[in-house]
Amino acid sequence: MPGAGTDKTKTWVAAAGPIVILVEPQLGDNIGTTARAMANFGLSRLRLVKPRDGWPNPRAYVAASGADRILDEATLHDTVEAAIADLTYVLATTARAHDQAKPVIGPEEAARLMAPRIAAGEAVGVVFGRERYGLENEEVALADAIVTFPVNPAFASLNLAQAVALVSYEWFKRTTDETLPFAMPDKSRPAPKQQLRAFFASIERELETVEFFRPAEKRETM
Amino acid sequence: MPGAGTDKTKTWVAAAGPIVILVEPQLGDNIGTTARAMANFGLSRLRLVKPRDGWPNPRAYVAASGADRILDEATLHDTVEAAIADLTYVLATTARAHDQAKPVIGPEEAARLMAPRIAAGEAVGVVFGRERYGLENEEVALADAIVTFPVNPAFASLNLAQAVALVSYEWFKRTTDETLPFAMPDKSRPAPKQQLRAFFASIERELETVEFFRPAEKRETM
Question: How many alpha carbons fall within 13 Å on the CB side of residue B208?
Answer without folding.
Answer: 7
